[in-house]
Amino acid sequence: MVEQYASFSTTVNVEDSNGDAINLSGYTAASQIRKSYYSSIANSFTTTITGIANGEITLAMTAANTALLTPGRSLFDLVITAPNGTKTRVVEGIVTITPGVTQ
User: Fold this and answer.
1) CA distance 54 to 48
2) Is the pLDDT confidence value at 75 over 90?
3) Which of 89, 76, 90 is closest to 15 using CA atoms?
4) Rounded to an integer, what distance in angstroms lies between the CA atom of residue 15 and that of residue 22?
């Protein structure tokens, strides 16, 4: 859940198929929210690799950016890019944007 007009932050731990943390040295990450898979409008999370050795990535969005989100259900994913250019979607799903009153 992302609250409109409020700052948002969450942490994702990236693991391999054995449940071991992936070392994210040299990796980059990107994450977006869209109303549908085919929407040309996207809102991006700020993605920061906060734990290289333990596979930790923080997704964040400022209150000014959450204000731009339309309340309701949207889609999101998180994609990491390896040093060799291989892209992997590590999480995806539905996110609910709750409307804010206080702006």
Assistant:
1) 13
2) yes
3) 90
4) 5
